[in-house]
Amino acid sequence: MNNITPLGFAILFCAVILILILPRKYAALPIIFAACFLTLGQQVKIAVFHFTGLRILIFVIFVRFFLRAEFKGIIFNKVDTIFLIWVTCSVVIYTVLHGTTEALINRSGFAYNAIGIYMAIRLTIREIGDFEILIKALALIAIPLSLIMLNEYLTGRNLFSFFGGVPEYTAIRNDKLRCQGPFAHPILAGTFGATLMPFLFSLWFKNKEKVFAFIAFSSATLIVFVSSSSGPLMAYLAALLALCMWPLRNQMKLVRWGIFIAVVGLHLIMKAPVWALIGRLGNLIGGTGWHRVELIDATVAHIQEWWFMGVKKTSHWGLDTLPDNPNMIDITNQFVSEAINGGFIKLTLFVILLAFCYSTLGKALKHFDDKYTKILIWSIGATLFAHMTSFLSVAYFDQITTFWYMLLALIAALGSMITTSAHKEAPFHEINTA
User: Fold this and answer.
1) How far apart are CA 34 and CA 45, in angstroms?
2) pTM
């Protein structure tokens, strides 16, 4: 079964050629472009396997890596290790829990996407200049994408429906159009804009690029606005808050302890759990914040069901079930999704992964002396914080995962740069005795 349209085929064909002929530092850009301008409706189905456009491009870029021996020179670190362990456990635990071939196929597809996208970015980003290339590419992508989504907001029709996988007519809630562009849900579209904004903010500090940076920054903001979703708005505000913390970058240890003490204190003095603040914030900016609160309440209340290896049925938890799976409730929280699909082990690995990412960013901030590089690293940290905020309102699926894995790979690449630099600066005898 082939669902690829002639235009989709033309885009994929051009992307394949570019992946094979471009210099290494540009090789992953066609994949990023495809994630933004092709829906998951563009796919080839062979038996039970679905090969989306992204999966086809992942295969092509790995062919390139092998043909050109571009795996050489990569130094793996803690972020790489914990990421691979997390993916492996996701596959093993979910498959054992469900005990079906379908579960194995499903998780194999997840692992293929996760490792494929992660390594595609990891192998092409080797120096700080490569970060700038990627961010400028994202800026150039955000501008036309925001205009297409603005057209959707003004007309109520999604031009990406031509590719399939997304509806032609835009969903409406509370008299507001909820635009989604190529993404499977408006929240995911808005999340893309919210988590892209901090990256684009760093361009402002490049000479002679302030107009371009402002246009790109505004484009990301527009994507959040037309999605009409409270979750992306919360993530956007969280990113702005993180960016505003730049003057306190040398006091972040105190800030973290202050936040921790404040959260614990609120939890002790509030009549409701501290996560009830999500619902109150939802009342202020709109959305379904109280559903998120009830979801966390239900997860905590049923911890005995999921703590070991996750759980196959949650319909009795008292929340709305999925239309296509009446045995499962609607999971609108990434942390809850980790728990339900892999138990305490998978949830813990996910939290450790986030901790390693922040640790790496902290080390990178101290390692590099150039002010622009420091701001770039800070913007990456703000992007990570925006994703973490978004995790409270949605469990990732569709092509938004491309940009999550991309972020993890960028942080791991920073870690490798620090290690490489340390080896170059260390005396020969210290390297041999290390």
Assistant:
1) 18
2) 0.93
